[in-house]
Amino acid sequence: MAAPSRTTTFANPPDYTFNSDRLRLTLHSPTKQPIVLVACGSFNPITYHHLRMFEMASDFVRQNTDFEIVGGYLSPVSDEYKKPGLVSAHHRVEMCTLATKQESTWLMVDSWEAFLNYQRTAVVLDHFNYEINTVLGGVYTQDGEHRDVRIMLLAGSDLISTMSEPGVWSHNDLDHILGRYGTFVIERSGSGMDQATDSLARWRNNIYPIPQLIQNDVSSTKVRLFFRRGLSVQYLLPAAVITYIEQNNLYPDDGLAPEKDKGKAKARESGEADAGSESSSVRAIQSTSGTERTILSRHFQ
């Protein structure tokens, strides 16, 4: 299917500049097709799992495809998404920026989607296509030969599951996203990935499942709950992001931690907690986390 027209233009938020600081404009291999990975999501907050998704995709692309990744972008959703508990776009963009600066040498954050009204995923991908291939002029081989960059969506298996559900996505949007661009999907245990892709058989050649060799179920929902229960989130998300959240009190402790856990927290402070204290806290999380879990119709968490 033909790519979006190069004459297409997009309205930008005030003071917006497309971030291309880490976009690599020269291909290493002239035989590879250049691609840019785009992950759309709440990032409320961003976690190490979000960053790991890009690294898993990078390994998969290098070992199993004829693509060459020249850049990767996080695109936080707009405040107009109206998801319960969603902190402001300003904070989510800043957290993503801190995470990529601290933890990555190639990932970037694009704020275009975040600071506009709600934008469909298909339009977001068109925006990246316009900025990279029309405004910047694509990339080049080492011999100076021009190449257009293929924009591809990076998502979790939950997203593909919603795409296979009748009535959730329009056929035109599915054809636009999967037909024109394509997607890499990080598989999650028990997600029914095979069944979902069977329902999307028309675009099967543009859907690239990526197995998680080490299962990781860290989610923004669980991290928010840990903050609200006063539990440690160390090593679940970058230190700079933790500091930012605490400084801005983004996910305040709701004071609902069970009394027995509060008592054990005091005991830990005095060095008297037993080895079972962590497991009891985990049970408390497991008993309440379902109330905050949301099925996303468009974005992974």
TrEMBL record:
Gene3D superfamilies: HUPs (3.40.50.620). It holds the Pfam family CTP_transf_like. GO terms for biological process: NAD+ biosynthetic process. GO terms for molecular function: ATP binding; nicotinamide-nucleotide adenylyltransferase activity; nicotinate-nucleotide adenylyltransferase activity. One of its GO terms (cellular component) is mitochondrial matrix. Its cofactor is Mg(2+). SUPFAM superfamilies: Nucleotidylyl transferase. Residues 38-224 form the Cytidyltransferase-like domain. Its EC number is 2.7.7.1, 2.7.7.18. It catalyses: nicotinate beta-D-ribonucleotide + ATP + H(+) = deamido-NAD(+) + diphosphate; beta-nicotinamide D-ribonucleotide + ATP + H(+) = diphosphate + NAD(+). Pathway: Cofactor biosynthesis; NAD(+) biosynthesis; NAD(+) from nicotinamide D-ribonucleotide: step 1/1; Cofactor biosynthesis; NAD(+) biosynthesis; deamido-NAD(+) from nicotinate D-ribonucleotide: step 1/1. Signal peptide: none annotated. Residues 257-271 have a biased composition (Basic and acidic residues). Residues 282-294 have a biased composition (Polar residues). InterPro entries: Cyt_trans-like (IPR004821), Euk_NMN_adenylyltrnsfrase (IPR051182), NadD/NMNAT (IPR005248), NMNAT_euk (IPR045094), Rossmann-like_a/b/a_fold (IPR014729). Keywords: ATP-binding, Mitochondrion, NAD, Nucleotide-binding, Nucleotidyltransferase, Pyridine nucleotide biosynthesis, Transferase. It is found in: Mitochondrion. CDD domains: NMNAT_Eukarya. Belongs to the eukaryotic NMN adenylyltransferase family. Catalyzes the formation of NAD(+) from nicotinamide mononucleotide (NMN) and ATP. Can also use the deamidated form; nicotinic acid mononucleotide (NaMN) as substrate with the same efficiency. Can use triazofurin monophosphate (TrMP) as substrate. Can also use GTP and ITP as nucleotide donors. Also catalyzes the reverse reaction, i.e. the pyrophosphorolytic cleavage of NAD(+). For the pyrophosphorolytic activity, can use NAD(+), NADH, NaAD, nicotinic acid adenine dinucleotide phosphate (NHD), nicotinamide guanine dinucleotide (NGD) as substrates. Homotetramer. This is Nicotinamide-nucleotide adenylyltransferase. The lineage of its organism: Eukaryota, Fungi, Dikarya, Basidiomycota, Agaricomycotina.
